[in-house]
Amino acid sequence: MQILGVAGTGAHALCARIAPHLDGRVAVVERRADESGASQAKTAARSSLQGRPPGTDATYELGDDGVWAGAGQDRQLDDLVDDLAPHYDHALLVGYPDTTFPTVALGDAEVEDAAVEADTPDDVAVETVLETVADAEPYVTLDALVEQVKASPRADRAGAIATFTGRVRTKDGADDPKTLQLTFEKYDDVAEDRMRTIESELMDRDGVEEVVLFHRTGVLESGDDIVFVVVLAGHRVEAFETVSDGIDRLKDEVPIFKHETTVEEDFWVHDRP
């Protein structure tokens, strides 16, 4: 899923100009606040939940035509984006100037490192925004990749899905210094081409129907997901073997470089003996 933030006066108008040009399904997440700064969304959610059964935190209303509405509580933006990723191709975040996603700053909106800046929505070139969206690293979750392989035309021949998730661990041993973050860099075209080649070669195996590899780049903190391998196969044996080979080949063959920041030092891992 590709994500774009739009902050400032006229954000809705700009989203209305952009959305028709985005391929696939588009979701909008909006931060709403009244003049006092209290969240209208939270107020509305509490109102909607007044009649909820005891012990529940959310209510959903679904029409026969598929139109739905929902209200709930205790959700953060990251949680909601994770939920959207398996089902939408794009998400527009309205009123979130402080995310790490590419963001358009309108008027006097205070956005650090804004991808695009303009006084009004009409001053924004849609083509520039679309290029920004296309150039950004997609927001990928394990659930999204699982849904992707399930949708494969070869899925009717598969009885197994196996996955691997690599995470940022805080420390290897009890006496090791705590890792604060990892930073990953890659040769974009070379790394992507190599991952696609590995996927294709693994899919040539008997019983393997789909293989997807994904590795995040940028700054990741302790506990964040780094890399995913998802395999759709006829049986569990082929699935497990291919997942293991997939992560081994990705680590050995794909030019991705890791910089580690601990409480004691910073270093490139490939420079260590």
Account of the 3D structure:
This protein folds into two domains: 2-135, P-loop containing nucleotide triphosphate hydrolases (Rossmann fold), CATH 3.40.50; 142-271, Aldehyde Oxidoreductase, domain 3, CATH 3.90.1170.40. It is 29% helix and 29% strand. It is globular. The longest helix has 18 residues, at 236-253. The strands form four sheets. Strands 2-5-1-6-7 form a five-stranded parallel β-sheet. Strands 11-9-13-14 form a four-stranded antiparallel β-sheet. It contains seven helices and 14 strands. Helix 6 runs antiparallel to helix 7 (236-253). The model has no long low-confidence stretch (mean pLDDT 89). It is α/β, with parallel strands linked by helices and 273 residues long. It has helices spanning 11-18, 40-48, 77-84, 126-135, 142-150, 188-203, 236-253, and strands at residues 2-7, 26-30, 58-62, 68-72, 90-94, 103-106, 116-118, 160-167, 179-186, 208-215, 218-221, 225-233, 256-262, 266-268.
